[in-house]
Amino acid sequence: MPTFRAPRGTRDLLPAERAAFGRLESIASDLAGRYGYREIETPLFEQTAVFERGVGAVTDVVEKELFLLAPRTEEKESWALRPEPTAGIVRAYVQHGMQTLPQPVKLMMTGPMFRYDRPQAGRYRQFWQFDVEAIGDPGPAVDAEIVELALRFYTEAGLGTVEVHLNSIGDAACRPAYVEELKAYFRDHVSELPATERDRLERNVLRLLDSKDPAMAALNPGAPRISDRLCGPCAEHFAAVQAHLDSLGIGFMLEPGLVRGLDYYSRTTFEFYVTGRHGQQQAIGGGGRYDGLVELLGGRPTPAIGFGLGLDRVLLALEAEDVAAPAEPVPLAVVVGADPAATAERLRVATDLRAAGLAVRADLAIRKLGKQLESAARDHAHFAVIIGDELTDGQVQLRDLEAGSQQLVPVADLARKLAAAAKSHRHGVGDG
Ligand code: HAM
Fold first, then answer.
1. Ligand 1 test: best mutation among 55, 127, 290, 294, most atoms within 8 Å of CB?
2. Ligand 1 in contact with 269 (CB < 6 A)?
3. Beta pairing class for 126-135 and 105-114
4. Which listed residue, of 44, 340, 342, 357, carries a Cα 20 to 30 Å from 283's Cα?
5. How confident is residue 432, by pLDDT bands cut at 50, 70 and 90?
6. ∠252-253-255 over CA atoms, to 5°?
7. Strands 79-81 and 45-47: what pairing?
8. The predicted structure's pLDDT at residue 415
9. pLDDT of 93-109, one tens digit each?
10. Ligand 1 pocket check for 299: Cβ under 6 Å
């Protein structure tokens, strides 16, 4: 047993897995760029109040799962690691006066989030999201555009079929009456409620609907549903979102119980699942409209919508579907030498080739040439640059490790020759 291990619920992304993440991140940023989203980076931690106010004080994410940073004695402020990016992005939107820019302001981010939850398969204490936010557009067309963008991401990542679960949770006009109705329903079942849910009944009854407590699985299906209680404008908005999805040929499942676990949502909400995998920890992404959040964090009333896709879960799903991981990078050449001790020569030649933009490893171990060549072959290098006595005449041997051929090449020509070979799909060394 090693003395130290990565903290529970976190893991090291070793190079192969990091490469798989990197591939998803570059698909995300290419795609978001194509749709007009620009990258933003906010701090990994914020004032705790940003999350209490933004996400909601009476939510699992804030009440149970927030990673609070131990304050130093001189600090009066309370800080927390971000459990999700939306509150921080909206805080930045308000802070930097982005409401004066042409609307909507379309922002994207990929990065780690932190939730102090009980770790299990697909649920981590540090996990990665691809997030987009379109701030300043009331929809309904952008609602459909954002769902389509998420589905495009899954397709480009290589996932098979992904289900869209869709709902509307109304707004400040229709939700209050619904909330009262929901309270009345749960008051009738108060003896069946687990302690946390009983405590939340009067404070934030909507959260009972997304409770992870198994006891709630029996009660929730009988609860009144917001989608049946929408006011005229919300119902119209929801119908128009569906019509836009229809016109894009996007299928979706109406899920009247889908209220999401964060308080800021209004109207459109959605979640994404790999077909047939619907468990509570299985959502590979989710999001929705949050028309009240900008104002809640001190800005002018501004409609907005966004999503967060769980990259860890997307990778798990890709592995389950046997989608090939990205190939490991292979050096174009390894610089080896007949004199095991002449590491300075090998380092110098490799340095010049790398400065010319080529992927070249220097063999810096003091070992026989045969061993150095074996190691180059193990790396699947295409060429070995072999330094010998010819170096005094400014020449080296260039061996094509695939073809087995070898030729003398002036050191001055080496970079050009290797670059040409790399370009011509690494098919041998030409004479040119
Ligand atoms: P969320 O549903 O809390 O939404 O998280 C989005 C996605 O992050 C989930 O669907 C899931 O794939 C992944 N995820 C969440 N928690 C974990 C965890 N502990 N381990 C692994 N993956 C996890 C939000 O965070 C909202 N900010 C989305 C949004 C953006 N809404 C509007 N704009």
1. 127
2. no
3. antiparallel
4. 44
5. very low
6. 135
7. antiparallel
8. 96
9. 999 999 999 999 999 99
10. no
Buried b (16+ CB within 10 A) or exposed e, 55-87: bbeebbbbbebbbeeeeeeeeeeebbbbbbbbb
DSSP reduced 3-state for 179: helix
Question: Can you read off the two tokens belonging to residue 113?
Answer: 């989030």
How close is the Cα of 111 to the center of ligand 1, in Å?
A: 12
User: Is the pLDDT assigned to residue 153 strictly greater than 60?
Assistant: yes
What distance in Å separates the CA atoms of residue 239 and residue 243, rounded to the nearest whole number? 6
Residue owning the nearest CA to atom 16 of ligand 1: 123
pTM value is 0.91
CB 200 within 8 A of CB 187: no
170-179 pLDDT per residue, tens? 999 999 999 9
**Which DSSP state fits 400?**
E
Q: CB pairs under 8 A, 24+ apart, for 241-249?
A: 241/139, 241/140, 241/143, 241/144, 241/166, 241/168, 241/268, 242/166, 243/140, 244/140, 244/141, 244/143, 244/144, 244/145, 245/144, 245/147, 245/148, 245/164, 245/166, 247/144, 248/144, 248/148
Joined together, the tokens standing for residue 341 give: 């001790």
Q: Give yes or no for residue 238 having a pLDDT over 90.
A: yes
Whose tokens are 């004199």? That residue is 339
Q: How far apart are the first and last CA of the chain?
A: 56
**pLDDT average, residue stretch 135-139:** 96
Beta carbons of 171 and 267 less than 8 angstroms apart: yes
Sign of the torsion angle spanned by Cα atoms 295, 271, 26, 12: positive
pLDDT band, very low/low/confident/very high, at 1 (cuts 50, 70, 90): confident
The CA 265 to ligand 1 mean position distance, Å, reads 13
Using an 8 Å Cβ cutoff, are 27 and 130 in contact? Answer: no
Q: Within the chain, how many helices (H) and strands (E) appear?
A: 14, 16
Distance between CA atoms of residues 346 and 324, nearest Å: 35
pLDDT tens string 312-343: 999 999 999 888 888 888 999 999 999 999 99
Look-up of token digits 């979640």: 271
